[in-house]
Structure formats: structure tokens, C-alpha cells
Amino acid sequence: MRDANPLLDLGFHIPFDQIGAEHVEPAVDQLIRDAEAALARVGSDPEPPTYANTLQALEDGLEPLERAMSVIGHLESVATTEALRNVYNEVQPKVSALYSAIPLNPDLYRRLVAFSETDEAAKLSPTKRRFLDKELRAFRRNGADLPEAGKQRMTEIDVELSKLTTKFAQNLLDETNAFELIIEDEAGLAGLPESARAAARASAKAKGVEGWRFTLQAPSAFPVLTYLDDASTRETIWRAYNTRASAGERDNAPLIARILELRREKSALLGYETFADYVLEERMAKDGARAVRFVEDLDRRTRPFFDQENAQLAEFRRELEGEDAPPLQPWDLGYYAEKLRQARYDFDSELLRPYFAADRVMQGLFSVVERLYGVRVEQDQGVPAWDEDVRYYRLLEGDTLRGAFYVDLHPRENKRGGAWMSSFVTGSPEHGPHLGLFCANATPPVGDQPALLTHDEVETLFHEFGHLMHHLLSDVEVRSLAGTNVAWDFVELPSQLMENWTWEREALDLFARHHETGETIPEDLFEKMTRARTFRAASATMRQLGFASADLGLHVDYDPARDGDAVTYARTRMAPFAATPLPDDYAMICGFGHLFQGAVGYAAGYYSYKWAEVLDADVFTRFTERGIFDAEVGQELRAKILSRGDSADPETLFRDFMGREPSVDALLARSGLLA
Hints:
The protein is mainly α. It folds into four domains: 2-145, Endopeptidase. Chain P, domain 1 (Glutathione S-transferase Yfyf (Class Pi), Chain A, domain 2, Up-down Bundle), CATH 1.20.1050.40; 179-243, no CATH class; 249-353 and 537-606, Orthogonal Bundle (Neurolysin, domain 3), CATH 1.10.1370; 357-511, Collagenase (Catalytic Domain), CATH 3.40.390. The protein has 27 helices and seven strands. It has helices spanning 21-44, 51-78, 82-101, 106-116, 119-122, 126-141, 148-178, 194-206, 218-227, 231-242, 253-269, 275-280, 288-321, 330-345, 358-373, 455-472, 492-499, 505-508, 523-531, 537-557, 560-563, 566-574, 593-596, 608-626, 631-642, 650-658, 665-670, and strands spanning 181-183, 212-214, 376-379, 391-397, 400-408, 420-425, 434-439. A five-stranded mixed beta sheet has the order 3-4-5-7-6. Helix 3 runs antiparallel to helix 7.
């Protein structure tokens, strides 16, 4: 019975406390049947094609399945169990097959083409016309014009990619959870901050072991790499992190090889020279060659500063340890860089942690958007979630509910790593509010103390909340073009823009208060923090460019017959961007979820982070000129970018707000890299 399965009739309030693994397959099978019936009705409708009975009917017919799969996929990411994982693996190929079949359905395609030639289509609003054009293009980009054999092969490729990328993600999670390092002698913790020691002690206690327990989750691993004096332990953690899922039964290397092979085959079937050209046609970069030029240009402008930073760090180690100090290794970089930062700026980033209690940071997030966009955030404690630590909030404008969202801040073993924002419900002016979430893996509370975050973690929360505001403030009449459904080299603009407020005194004073005294960050510490902002900025930039170069190389140039295995090829592509030589077993791409945890994801698009950083630095100049809480600029940003989704080309939205094309100079100036 439908009534007994909570996934079959998901309302705005999702009954997470009622959804079990046993509900997944029956619900998905039924929703697939419902979707197929809806698609059949559109394709066989005897009435003349209209927007309502064609485009709108297509969108409405798929929405229940989309919503259910967003919930199921989310639960598999944040509250996974063996039963849930198994059933998720069972239903994913079925759903992938359905979506792959849509653009290959000749009746649907003919119906769309027929509607595009009607008088109604010629008079559509700009947003609906854009939706029609994008749908026609999506059908063609997914094989609508292929012969029957090609259509069948496209379906097979998409289903196999769904299986492979899901397996990649699960291998990575399992490999991350499989590692632990127990230090029994406190002398082995020399250099480690008290916050990291306490967390490691609590982790060991939770596992019933003596000593201090370290894992590959970011709040555990990164303090070791930054502060721990013992180089051998740093090496152990670094090597474990950068060789995850690269050997044994959870080896992702064969999956990567096959994923790349299928992506090449798919793009060739559709007439594209490379997978990057296929992906980027719908993004701001437009093709792989332009993305490569963007990376090469930033490399050229950054490399002189990068070389200088590397020489300075090597010289600093010699100053500390003598002229015969050994060359820096990858696991030394964070450690000596932190010592150099402390020496140069008298700044220890751990001194900021007491000022960033997680609850206050969240309130700071809310205060910033309330001032900028005229909304307010209220917590609602009566809504069930997937874990007791998850919180639920409503976003209000006056008495109107604009949207709601969940927040899941801290790591768990049943939760994948990283930070991300997702949507459950994409509303519209006609169909009501939006529902979303953001997740992080920030430092958890220890003992009686609140969760005390690093400034990097604060930036991450602001970043993900920027994505969330892009979703919640959307005012687009077409669901498929609303919120964050935009080009992936534009989607990071609202998120990276939000990070700027974590560097501004006026914003920090709203929430950065000592968790014991309530005092704001002392002025001398704030000045040290801002002076140190551009410390090794070139190295941070080159690290991102290295990832982007490997990504583009794999999806533009890579030929396994010529270049060998993908792991070695990627290491070779990253090597020129690394501050030290990379070990022969460096296999970072086996854990590179951005590229291989989805059929597309950030594949051929990792450059988007730097691309969007150019946009965000440029946009933030409007606020530095008028005031970081200038409501007029905030409302203009909301009206011209955040509320618009993909209702117009991103280049148009940017020009509407800035009055000109983007300039890279603002980013280089902010990073201290403007020659």
C-alpha cells in the first residue's frame, strides 16, 4: 500500500524518522512505473502540444521520483547502513536507465520539436523559452538524434557509469573509515594543540582503546599534518590519506580507468572531440580548450610567486635546522609553513579557535544574510531528522516562509567526508517554498566544551550556506532552472562570495566571541590574521590549479594506450604544481570524489573553483566600495543573481550586476599576487 511507504508521498516535511532501507526498492519501483506512465502520456497525447501538456507535464511527471531519490541518496551519504547501501546499489541502475531513456524516446522528442514550432512557443516568457531551448539541446546532447544502436549504447553507458561512480564513493568512505592510528605515549603528541589532543583522546575513548586515536577525517588528520613534531607520524597520515582506495579489494584505480573510458565513448558517440567539450558546452567556459587556457594563464601569473614561496620555506627550514637540513617532503609542507607563518606574522591560527564556537558561527551566518537580504532565520525543534545532532531552520521574509533547511555539522562514521549543500524541494513563486540542507565535517564538541572551529572551517560553513541561499532565495517560474541548477563554473560564485564576510571585522564581531568570556577577537590578533591571509597564497592557488590540470588532462588529452594508467598520468600532471616531489605511490585521484562520485560531477570542471573565485572577488568589490552590509547592494545581488537561478545566461547575470565583464585583477589583488 502506498500509505505504508513514506517515500511514495513525500511532502514538504520529510519523515526521516520513518524511512527505512526496506522502503527504498518498493518505492523506487513504483515511482519508476509512475514516471514511465507520465512520460507515455506526454508522448502519446492526441491533443496539440502546449507548454502545459508537454514541458510542464514532463517536469511534473519526474518530480516525485527525483524527490525520493534525493532523500535516498542523501541518507546513503549521511546515515548509511549495510542494508541501505545494498538497496541503494540495487535501485541506482534502474533510475539511471529511466533517465537515460528519456532523451532517446522518439515520441517525446517529436513532441518537443512540434511544440517548439507553435505560436505559443514563440510567445513564451524568456525563462520558459530558455527552458524549452535547453530541453531540446539536452535531448540532442543525450542521443536523441542517434541511430537505434547508438541510443541503446548510450543507455548502457549511463547505467554502467551509475554503478561505477556509486562504487567509487562507497570504496572511498570505507577506506577512510578503515584507517586509524593509535598513539599510546603522550610524548608522541609533541607540537599538537590541546584541542586536537582532546579530540583524539575522546575518539580513542569512544572506541574503547587507550591513548589517542587519529583518523583520516579532516578534523583529525589536518592538525597532525600542521602541528605534530614527529615527521614519521605526519608521513603515515599523509601517505594514508593520499593513497586511499588505491590498492586491495577497494582499489578505485580500475573504476577510474573504466569511468574515463565510458566518458570518452559517450562524448565520441555524441560527436564531441573530448568529454570536456561535451561537458563544458553548457558552462561558461564553453569548451575544454578555453578551460585549459584559463588554468594556464593563472599558472603563468602565479608561478613566480609560487617559486618564491617555495624557496622561502626551504630557507626557513635551513634557518631552523642548519644548512644540512633535508629537503622538504609533502608531509613537511603544512608543518613548516605553519611555523613560518607564526614566525613571520606572530600568528597561530589555533588562537582563533576559542572565538569560533559552532553555535555562534551559525548565528553569525544568519545575521549576515538577515542584514543583506531582509530575511530572518528561526530554528524549529519539532521536525525529525536523520541524526539527533541535525538541526532544522526556517527562512522567513516577514510572515512568509521562503524556505527551510537542515544543518549537519560534524563527522560520523556513517557519513561521507567533505562539505556540501543539497536540495530536497525546489519551489517556485507559484508552488511554494524551497527545502535544502548543508553538511560539513567540522570539529565536533569535546567533553563539556562547545564545538570550537578553525577559521578554515568557518569559511567552509559560510561557503555552503552561500550555496543554500542561492537555493532558498530563488524566484524562478521553472523548477529545473531554479536555485543552484546553473552552470557549474557559475554555481560557486554565491558560495565563495559568502566566504569574504569571514575576513571582515564588522561581520566577525557579530559572532566571533570567546566561548568563555564573550570578548570579540582582540585587535592585534585580528590584524595578524588579516596580514597572514595571503601567506603562501600562490601555493594554495597552485594546488587548486594542479587538481584542475589533472582533471582537464584526464578529460581532454589522456590516452591510456599512450599515457599508461590514469593514476600515474594524474600524478605527472599534478607534479609541476606541487611544492615538493610527489612519491611514486601518490594516488590522490583514487580519493578524488569531485571527479568520480557521479556520472559527471566536477569532471572536466574542477577549474570552476578558481573561475568562480575570479567572479566572487570581483563581485565583492561592490560591497567593499559601499559597505559590507549595504542593504541596497545586497538586495541588488539577490535580485540580479541569487533569485535568478538559470533563467538567463550567467554572463548576462554577472554583467547585470557588475555592469561589465569579469576581471581577474580583483582576485590577484586579494591574494597578494598582482605583479
